[in-house]
Specification:
The protein is an alpha/beta fold. The chain is about 30% helix and about 30% strand. Strand 2 and strand 3 form a beta hairpin.
Length: about 160
């Protein structure tokens, strides 16, 4: 397990190491990026939230509408936005609360829908050998995840 550090508001929750990246990196991580996608109703209007933290300071934040689609598409689009922004030359932890995203991006699950988007994200992910995807529990008091959730929900 990874160290919780001060990012955690809930002592019962830590990293869930159920999601492993294609290229493990064990360096010291200073940058943690949290993503979330929202779609209400589903399908409906999508929004994404991306929050990058250095310690507890926000280094980057995205909150934007993404048009009509599904909640899975919104989650994927949030990860794509995070990967496009993520530096290639430093260790990064990419935190997602979507089992679907974790599976299709870092575990190579087969996909029948969103194939072009998934292929693009997989390529971005592989191009950053110093990134590790971490599956976190949504709505569990994890500061970065809560900030990304709020960013995705803002109209």
């Amino acid at each position: 397990l990874l160290s919780n550090g001060p990012l955690w508001r809930s002592s019962r929750d830590g990293f869930a190491p159920s999601c492993h990246c294609l290229c493990p990196y064990n360096g010291v991580v200073q940058l943690r990026i949290f993503t979330d996608g929202s779609c209400r109703p589903n399908p409906g209007q999508m929004r994404i939230g991306v929050v990058a933290l250095r310690g507890e300071a926000v280094a980057h934040r995205v909150s934007q509408p993404m048009g009509y689609g599904t909640s899975n598409q919104a989650e994927l689009l949030a990860v794509r936005e995070a990967l496009r922004w993520a530096p290639q030359d430093e260790p990064v932890e990419l935190h997602v609360d979507s089992k679907y995203v974790c599976g299709v991006i870092s575990r190579g699950w087969n996909v029948l829908k969103n194939t072009e988007l998934v292929a693009e994200i997989r390529e971005l992910y592989r191009s950053r050998p110093r990134i590790r995807m971490v599956k976190v529990r949504g709505h569990a008091g994890i500061l970065g995840n809560e900030l990304a959730d709020r960013a995705a929900a803002q109209p």
